[in-house]
Every structure is written in structure tokens, then in C-alpha cells.
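Thread: Phytanoyl-CoA dioxygenase, structure

OP (GT): Posting the sequence first so everyone is looking at the same thing. Length is 238 residues per the record. Can we get the C-alpha cells written out before standup tomorrow? I want them in the notebook alongside the other entries.
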Amino acid sequence: MTTKRSRPSPPSTAPAPTSVLSPLDTFATRGWVCIRNLLSPSELRVLRDECDVLYARKSVEDIVAQGCVLDVMAQCPMRDSDSARVNSKCYLTARAKQLKSIADDHQVFTSLLFEKLPTVAGQLLADCTEVETPTEVFFFNEHYVVKPPKSHVEFRWHRDDDEQLAMSVHRETIVPYVSAWCALDDVTEANGALQFVSLDGPSELGNDKVENLQRRASEPVTAKAGDVLFFLSNATIS
């Protein structure tokens, strides 16, 4: 997957809503937290519309073969020297050109990708590292995950950094990153709720049997459309 790194706007210094601050003390130990109603109705609409556009471009068979992942920038490969890799405005311009976004949608993604979600991620990372100010964050990548109707795709127990960083040089020196998993539809146990194994438990994923992971796992984390799950890349999820 093509990755992008770009400096977002500085995190807001204004006090965060109680719904954002209250889970901080559990994120560092569990490795995940669900923040309810974080997406506004307009943000949710724009994300859904864009997801529908990407979904319509591929057959169900192709989507299943790609693990139900729709890469936003799949049709716009970037060279290492491209400005879009390190400049948020250039990235958003390339993104809008590929997806033919309208001006209003462009503003939504500017705010969501480089202000709103990074601000929360910075607060969570700051709590993990026990620093007083939000951690500086960088944009890594984005994609949609869509399970076609009546498909049988399942996500095995895994860690995101094992999947995303497997080919990285000096992998052992890369610190965990934060993923923001935005629910675009209501998520139930029947249609794909995530489960997590807490970070404060045993971490030998490769040697752990599925039944042991399942026994230590959280209850399926159901979510309403507009909720956002934040989790560390070294958290064990399914």
C-alpha cells in the first residue's frame, strides 16, 4: 500500500470535550478506545458518498480478493519525491483530482484528516508517553474497509503494524502508531464488530492459539454510524 506522510495542522490548544478526555486513562493500558458520535452528520455523509464511489469502481470479486480494502489513492501512485507525500495541501489536491471531489467535500477532508482526527490521536499518544502536551502526529495512510453483502471475509487475529510495516527497514525502531477506524454504518456482532486483546496481557501473538486470544478478548465493540475507534498499531485485534 502506498503510504503518505504529511504534517497536519498543530493540535488545538482548546480544552477537548469530556467525551474525548475521559477514555485517556484506559487507552494506554488497553490500546483502544471508542469515542461516540465523533463524526458530524456532514462528515459521515461525505465519507459514505466517497466510499460508494470507490465501491462502484470494482467488482465484488475484486473487492473480496483485496481483503475488502478500498485504497483511496490506488489510481494515483506517488513517487518517493512527490510533494504529496510530505505536504498536506499537495496530497489533498491529488486526492480531490482523482476522486473528483467537490469543494465542500475537500474542506471536510482537510478538517477530518489533518485537524480533527490527528488532534484526538495526539492526545491519546501523549497519554501513552506520559507527556503534558499532545504528541506531534503525521498522516500515514487511509483506506475504506467494505464487506460485500453475503461475503464470508473474516479478519483473523492480527496487529496492524505487522501488516502495514512488514517490509519497513529498521522495523524494530518504529514506534506504534494510532489508527482511527470510523464507523460509516451501525456495527453489530453480526456484521463485523471488532474485538481487542488488552495490551496489559500476554503479547506473544505468534505463539498464541486462537482460543486463547478469544478467551482474553474484549466483548465485540459495537458502534453506531459516526463513532470512531482509535487503537494502537501493536494492539491485537480481530
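GT: Both are above now. Quick notes for whoever picks this up: Residues 10 and 157 are 34 Å apart (CA to CA). Residues 103-129 form the longest helix (27 residues).
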